[in-house]
Amino acid sequence: MRVLAALSGGVDSAVAAARAVEAGHEVVGVHMALTRHRAQTRSGSRGCCSIEDSADARWAAEILGIPFYVWDLSEEFEDRVVADFLSEYRAGRTPNPCVRCNERVKFDALLERGLAMGFDAVATGHYARLTGGASSGRPGDTHDLCLSRAADAAKDQSYVLAVSGREGLSRALFPLGDAPSKAAVRAEAAERGLPVADKPDSYDICFVADGDTRGFLQRSLGTQEGTLVSPDGEVLGTHEGYFGFTVGQRKGLGLTRPAPDGQPRYVIATRPATNEVVVGPRELLSRHEIEADALVLLADPTALGPATLRTQSPGGQGGPESPGEAAPGVTEAGMGWAGVAVQVRAHGRPVSADVTVDPSSTTLHARLHEPLRGLAAGQSVVVYGGADGEQVLAQATVA
Predict the structure, then answer these.
(1) Which residues contact 34 (CB under 8 A, 6 or more apart)?
(2) What is annotated as the active site (predicted)?
(3) Which residues are annotated as a binding site?
(4) pLDDT by residue (tens digit) across 15-62?
């Protein structure tokens, strides 16, 4: 296959490209320049897409003996990721820019250009296992396509890849999906003579290189004084913009007096219309159900059958004792899965749930077997199940 290898300048993408070459594919390396105002170098593990990263990517391509190009995707990144990030915070939601970037740039934009140039698939350094499609030598074929967690649970990135959908993933290669650990990948890079073997990973939001998300939002959206209020409306303090807060936040609230019971306060909700931030006790963060939209089905939709789900108990508990096992009070509740797991953060703890989906309205509803805290509108919810519990079944955005 003709494969376009995304080279970020880091160790993962370099080893992934090396494995693609070793597998016999015709590989071309490309570095995505996501900003036109790149720093000369990265600051440790913060930021990405620096001129240093571009040079490291070129160096890796030379060692692998593959053609190399730099593509300017800064306009797509600004429009599809950064603008979306600001718009979501302005609307009082909590977006995940890494999910958006994987969906709209690292796959959509890259694959769109690649297909136009005659490539069959793209290879990246993501940690996830993929079978079917290009991974089985059938690029574009969604039959039997399956996205699952990586062998290395600590590095698993299936959560951020789920939004890419069956069509996009059918033309993807993730050569590191079976890597036992990041240490093993670094050792392999060193053995191959790749100069990025010891390069630090990048963390945080890449376009907020200093890690100060609130500062970035204030510089971009301005400041507007508002109030911090209790759930019953008592004014407790002031702030400089509701968009600088997210549900579940405890630190940085700027409160000068403690709660009457001495317990910490958390952000319970933000109200864009009135520029209010509601703060209260931790127990108010608990959610027993999830409503989500913009559904992306990763499981074969033709195999989706009726789900027998337990009705929600008054205390918010409930659900089959084991996957697929009926329990007293069950009802036929649509298409979906019983006793699967849902995850709402990239490396968050999965929670058992019963899930129904409606492909026609692209909505998802999950009844949790135990409460989740700090769930915010705009977050990505990913459903895992299958025989081993590792398969990605669906993804949606919390409403």
Answers:
(1) 48, 49, 73, 74, 77, 105, 206, 207
(2) 101, 206
(3) 6-13, 32, 125
(4) 999 999 999 999 999 999 887 665 544 454 445 667 788 999 999 999
Which entry of 48, 49, 98, 101 is annotated as an active-site residue?
101
- Distance linking the first and last C-alpha atoms of the chain: 40
Q: Does the annotation mark 48 as catalytic?
A: no
Nearest to 88 by CA among 361, 366, 376, 289: 376
Asked if 246 contacts 378 with a C-beta cutoff of 8 angstroms, the reply is: no
pLDDT, tens only, 81-135:
999 999 999 999 999 898 898 888 888 888 999 999 999 999 999 999 999 999 9
DSSP string, 101-170: HHHIIIIIIHHHHHHHTT--EEE-----EEESGGGGT-TT--TT-EEE--SSGGG--HHHHGGGHHHHHT
Check whether residue 247 and residue 116 sit in a common domain: no
Which residues are annotated binding-site positions for ATP? 6-13, 32, 125
Backbone angles phi, psi at 305, to 5 degrees: -120, 180
In a domain, 318, yes or no: no
Residue 209 in contact with residue 39, Cβ under 8 Å?
yes
Tally the domains of the chain.
3
Let me know if 49 is a catalytic residue. Answer: no
Q: pLDDT at position 106, please?
A: 83
Specify if 202 maps to a domain: no
Which residue is listed with tokens 């952000």?
267
Which residues constitute the domain of residue 65?
2-192
Q: Does any domain span residue 17?
A: yes
Contacts of 35 (CB under 8 A, 6+ apart): 49, 74, 77, 78, 207
CA 164 to chain CA mean position, Å? 10
Which DSSP state fits 203? B
**Partners of 324 in beta bridges:** none
